[in-house]
Amino acid sequence: MTDLIPMRTRSTRSRRAFTLVEILTALFILSIIGLAFVRLMTSQSRFAEGQMALRNARSVSRNAMNILLTDLRMVQDSGGLVAASRDSVTVRVPVAFGLLCGAAAGSTTISLLPIDSSMTALGWYAGWAYRDSANAHYVYNPAGTPVSFTSFPAQTVADSTLCAANAILPGNIQQPGISPVTYGTRRGKVVVITDPTTPLVNINGVAPNAGWPVFLYQQVTYKFAHSSAYPGRIGLFRLVRAANVMAPVTDEIIAPFDSAGAKFRFYVLNADVAQDAPPAHLWEVRGVELNLAGSSPRAQQGRAAAKQTLVTGVFFKNRRDP
Question: How far apart are CA 131 and CA 267, in angstroms?
Answer without folding.
Answer: 23
